[in-house]
Amino acid sequence: MTIEFLLRLIGMVIFAVIGWRIGDALGGEAQMRYIIVLALAGAALGLLVTPWLTIRPYLWMRKTIRQIPAQQLLAATIGLLIGLIIAALTSFPLSFLPNPWGSLLPFVSLLIFGYLGAWVMVMRERDFFALLSGRLGREGLKSSERSVLLDTSVIIDGRIADISRTGFIDGTMMIPRFVLAELQHIADSPDPLRRNRGRRGLEMLNKLQKESIVPIRITDLDVEDVREVDDKLIRLAKNLHCPIVTNDYNLNRVAELQGVRILNINELANAVRAVVLPGEAMRVYIVQEGKELGQGVGYLDDGTMVVVDNAKRYIGTEIDVTVTRMLQTNQGRMIFATPILEEKK
User: Fold this and answer.
1) E strand or H helix at 203, and its extent?
2) Quick check: helix, strand or coil at residue 40?
3) Edge-to-edge strands of the sheet including 148-150?
């Protein structure tokens, strides 16, 4: 037996009793007829409307509260308490007014000041917490501002697990449950490539939770009126005033257009790669043929591509090269070089 069905039965009994009482109050010659008809009508009405008076408001309230950030919820609660205190102070003098104002205005002031208190505090929550001199207020605000949201692509990528161990991100890493659901959906995909990516993402998430030196939190915060995961992330980041960690180029551009701060792992990787200058020598293992005739391609430890002229015949061997130029692309840096053996000849 479900809770909704049980509540419907309780509502049916309550409304049937109300109908019986109304029929009994009508009296007259047809008293029993009124009692039966109104009791049956009350029972039917109770079965129909009870969920809308009990479960539906509860579910709506729970969904709304889950979407509200904790900081806003705390600010609204404090504002409501302040508004109720002001309303209580004004109710006493208002009660001396002649009826009906003496009975009506105290209740009206309770509604007005309660609403205004909560509304003002939500609108000025950041200013309020910034003015608090206590440690709790300051640390709570800083913690909220240092939080970051992780998207699906950066979890699958896996480099965020290594970054989390370095301490560069010192706030809480939050993973919305809808991102976790998308990872699970990818891991269950019939396509082998997508399935492997999803499983890798779940493994990286498990590794992140075990090895990260910063807090990792799975949050139930959601945006119910948005379906796409990227749109949900952007809206949630705007509500929480926190950045998104990603390596998704499209999400990066869309979020920036909407004023959301982005921490792009690819941009970080490009920024910390070793800088090489023309004329410097290095040792490179040639792994494949290049696009141009005779070229060989190798990679540095950080993943930077090195294109070596006339190095096709050295595929599978490690050679010394001299850097000739460097090119910055959207995918990262490319280094062009020539074999030192060729120069000596």
Assistant:
1) helix 192-211
2) helix
3) 216-219, 173-176, 148-150, 244-246, 262-264
Q: Cα–Cα distance between 33 and 39 in angstroms, integer?
A: 10
| Residue 289, beta-bridge partner list | 296
DSSP state letter for 312: G
Residue 196 to residues 116, 185, 201: CA-CA distances in angstroms?
53, 12, 9
Q: Cα separation of 114 and 101, whole Å?
A: 19
| Segment (H or E) for 137 | helix 135-146
Under the banding of pLDDT at 50, 70 and 90, the label for residue 229 is: confident
Q: Burial of 15 by CB count in 10 Å (0-12 exposed, 13-18 middle, 19+ buried)?
A: buried
Better-predicted residue by pLDDT, 29 or 207: 207
What domains are defined for the chain? 3-59 (no CATH), 68-131 (no CATH), 147-270 (3.40.50.1010), 275-344 (2.40.50.140)
* Rounded CA separation 46/58 (Å): 18
Which residue in 86, 79, 81, 85 sits closest to 118, CA to CA?
79
Strands 296-299 and 281-289: antiparallel
- For tokens 């806003």, the residue is 72
- At 172, the amino acid letter reads T
Closest CA to 239 of 142, 122, 116: 122
| β-bridge partners, 299 | 305
**What is the chain's length?**
345
pLDDT, residue 27, reads: 65
| Tally of helices (H runs) and strands (E runs) in the chain | 15, 10
C-alpha span between 154 and 252 (Å, rounded): 12
CB-based burial, 118-133: b 16+ in 10 Å, e otherwise: bebbbeebeebbeeee
The 10s digit of each residue's pLDDT in 188-220 is 988 888 889 889 888 988 888 888 888 888 888
pTM: 0.49
43-68 per-position pLDDT tens digit: 888 888 888 888 888 777 777 776 67
